Amino acid sequence: MNTNTFKPLVFSGVQPTGNLHLGNYLGAIRKFVALQENNDCIYCVVDLHAITAQLVHDDLRGQIRSIAAAFIASGIDPKKHIVFNQSAVPQHAELAWIFNCVARIGWMNRMTQFKDKAGKDRENASLGLLAYPSLMAADILVYRATHVPVGDDQKQHLELARDIAQKFNIDFQEKIRATGTGVDMVVGEEKIHGYFPLVEPLIDGPAPRVMSLRDGTKKMSKSDPSDLSRINLMDDADDIAKKIRKAKTDPEGLPGEIEGLKDRPEADNLVGIYAALADRTKADVLAEFGGQQFSVFKPALADLAVHVLSPISGEMRRLLDDTSHIDAILRDGGERARARAGKVMADVFDIVGFLR
Questions:
Q1: Which residues are registered as beta bridge partners of 84?
Q2: How far is 252 from 268, CA to CA, in rounded Å?
Q3: C-alpha dihedral over 254, 255, 257, 259, to 10 degrees?
Q4: Of residues 79, 80, 115, 117, which has the active-site annotation?
Q5: pLDDT at 3 over 50
Q6: Which of 167, 219, 242, 282 is catalytic?
């Protein structure tokens, strides 16, 4: 598809569940900051998604503010771009319902993340958990966004968003043409007149895959019962140093070559974290520390992590001590997002044939 017919726009969101950690920062938020330099960006706290797996939260508002604080503290500019929480823009839910009617049940049943999250008791999972990829498609397409930065676990959902957009475009092609709201586009070999772009993934090199500090074979996770398994963005310098000091390793020293990290998941993870924080390659890190014991490498990693993360955690604490500034940013972002989404939903109402 030729996306030149749509104005380039980047959309992404983070779910407000649990504490943000180093993996969230390196895998997503730091990329958001880089993308804003050359793109029009909308960054969303996806609070509607937060109730799909867990309906009742102790402090959902606090979690929403914490994600927004992390965005701002990491360097996202809420004046040049849009930062808001999803529930403040009702058009997300409106478009999601239309997309529920576009999408097929078979498509939803194939989503591997639903199978993982629902587990064996699938009949007891919420309908929201099954349908949330449709809401994710609406999050993106209610702004007609053209690009989304994604990790491996979201690629399937982005494919679904493309499938939904394509089916809508084909099913309503004549209505789209009649309302004068669409663009000529090519899908495969076929020329159609569509309304929604087929969103493209933004994959900027290999994403750092940050694993648990207690088990190098598992991803760093907000839901891990051990706080020692992750470095939270709000951890202070002492906590960061303690967690890295206690991180699981093996008795061997660091190898001089990347091949030497094979079958050593904990060593590979710590070297990868150092490389990501320093914006260097693993080969660079091993060239410096190869042959050294972890008793030398861990303090160096702790110093680097504190140097990078302390300004972020300090600013997050400052913002969360007085939430009025965060709330004002979210309100302003919500108003600007509603203005954009409202235009798209007006078009969609006309295309589908609703009275308005």
A1: 44
A2: 12
A3: -100
A4: 117
A5: no
A6: 219
Q: Find the radius of gyration of the CA atoms of the chain.
A: 22
Between CA 231 and CA 138 the distance in angstroms is 32
| Beta-carbon count within 10 A of 61 CB | 13
φ and ψ at 40, to 5 degrees?
-80, 120
* 241 Cα distance to chain centroid: 27
Asked whether 266 and 249 are in contact (CB, 8 A), the reply is yes
If you average pLDDT over residues 253-263, what whole number do you get? 94
Distance in angstroms (rounded) separating the CA atoms of residues 273 and 292: 17
C-beta separation of 19 from 222 below 8 A: yes
What is the identity of the amino acid at 163? Answer: D
Any idea which residue has 């993340």 for tokens? 113
pTM of the model: 0.91
CA distance 183 to 181: 7
Strand, coil or helix: 73? helix
CA distance 204 to 35: 10
Tell how strand 82-85 and strand 183-187 pair up.
unpaired
The tokens for 224 are 């891990």
Q: In 3D, which of 249, 243, 256, 255 has the Cα closest to residue 302?
A: 243
pLDDT score, position 223? 82
Q: Is 222 among the catalytic positions? A: yes
Q: What is the mean pLDDT of residues 203-228?
A: 85
**219 is annotated as an active-site residue:** yes
d(CA 296, CA 246): 14
pLDDT at 205: 58
Query: CA dist 141 to 42, 148, 281, Å?
Result: 12, 11, 35
Question: Contact 254/292 with Cβ under 8 angstroms?
Answer: yes
Q: Which two tokens stand for residue 239?
A: 């906590």
CB 199 within 8 A of CB 162: yes
Is 246 among the residues known to form the active site?
A: no
Q: Which of 175, 222, 248, 282 is catalytic?
A: 222
For the chain, give the mean pLDDT. 92
Q: Between 209 and 135, whose confidence is greater?
A: 135
At 32-85, the pLDDT tens digits run 999 999 999 999 999 999 999 889 999 999 999 999 999 999 999 999 999 999
